[in-house]
Write a structure and sequence with these properties.
With 178 residues, the protein is of the alpha+beta class. The chain has one domain: Aminopeptidase. It is 34% helix and 29% strand. The chain has six helices and seven strands, in the order βαααββαβαβαββ. It has a four-stranded antiparallel beta sheet, sandwiched between helices. Strands 5-7-6 form a three-stranded antiparallel beta sheet, with helices on one face. This is N-acetyltransferase. One of its GO terms (molecular function) is N-acyltransferase activity. It comes from Nonomuraea terrae. Keywords: Antibiotic resistance, Transferase.
């Protein structure tokens, strides 16, 4: 069973370890110095930024990270995405990772994504949908989204997280259940 808690500054060393893992570093392309982790995760941890970072806990043990945000809070990202797919007001997006490479490829990403979507419907009652862009080459990620019930709604060019990737992305969406 997945439970959640907000990321706090004491979690930064764990995040750093995860970001250094090859299976994470390939797609997240994140600086991993203690200063960079504090710079990039500190504002959300302190509530100074509208995005939310959550640790996914499996049976109480850290499994992964989900970053969740309302696209309206990040107009540049929203507008880039809206050039290839309709983005309704209140839409939410997320990014995610499984930290321990021994736990990757076992369906836990799908479980984690599904759990966060359910939490999103509870936490954000005005959110009409969750929209997630994924680099086209990241088959593990978009397969996890598909298995979690999201459907591919667009294909288009977006700025990649990692400069070694092309601009081609798939966009997945799930709507709030009626």
């Amino acid at each position: 069973m997945i439970t959640w808690r907000r990321v706090g500054e004491p979690d930064f060393p764990l995040l750093r370890t995860w970001l250094e893992q090859p299976h994470v570093a390939r797609w997240w392309n994140h600086e991993t110095s203690p200063e960079a982790v504090a710079r990039d995760f500190g504002p959300a941890a302190r509530g100074e930024e509208p995005s939310e970072d959550f640790l996914a806990l499996l049976d109480g043990e850290p499994l992964g990270l989900v970053q969740r945000s309302r696209l309206d809070d990040y107009p540049e990202e929203r507008d880039e995405l809206a050039a290839i797919v309709p983005v309704p007001s209140g839409a939410v997006t997320m990014d995610y990772l499984i930290g321990d490479p021994r736990r990757a490829g076992r369906g836990l990403g799908t479980l984690m994504i599904s759990s966060m979507i359910e939490r999103t419907w509870d936490d954000l009652p005005s959110a009409p949908c969750v929209i997630v862009p994924v680099a086209a080459g990241n088959a593990a990620s978009w397969n996890a989204l598909r298995k979690a019930g999201l459907r591919r709604v667009a294909r288009g060019e977006l700025e990649p997280d990692n400069p070694i990737d092309g601009r081609e992305h798939y966009v997945y969406r799930i709507d709030r259940p009626r």
